[in-house]
Amino acid sequence: MKNNTNRLAVAFTGPSNSGKTSLIVKVSNILQDNGYKVAIVKHDPKDKANFDKDGKDSFKFSQTGADVAVVSPYKTTIFKKKTSTIDEMIDIFKEFDFLLVEGLKTLPLPRICICRTRLDENYFEVSDTLAIDDTIDKAKIPKGMQTLDLNNPEQVVQWIKENAKKV
Q1: Domains of the chain
Q2: What percent of the chain has pLDDT over 90?
Q3: Tens-place pLDDT, residues 80-109
Q4: How far is CA 110 from CA 56, 130, 154, 159, in A?
Q5: Does residue 136 contact residue 114 with C-beta atoms inside 8 Å?
């Protein structure tokens, strides 16, 4: 693992099905292949994520209203009954070189907006750069807005290394 005294964070935003998760997976793999420890936070605004199955012990524990931790030899899963701030998430992860955040557009982090097939102007105000592919009409991109090639995750990693925020 690289030295994590300079923990860096960056956020990804964009419309549904634009490729945010796919890009984050590629970026995470590249960073980890280069010896960095990566943590990822995904925003679930509609509370759709499901982490356990009905009938399992951890599900039964969670149904009591208690916060639950499931510890195995290879992972720890935490079920909390309230939301967490980004600072709390950073404390939970503690040791990382890069924190990649999907969503949470109100966080004051450098932000990459992913646009595939169409631009969504609602994200421009909260984004520092756009990651686009060939389906985007570059003439419609606001003057001065930096762009990255969505199909070149190495370029995105370089941008992150140069622009991520120390946390």
Answers
A1: 8-49+83-166 (3.40.50.300)
A2: 44
A3: 778 888 888 888 888 899 999 988 777 889
A4: 40, 11, 17, 10
A5: no
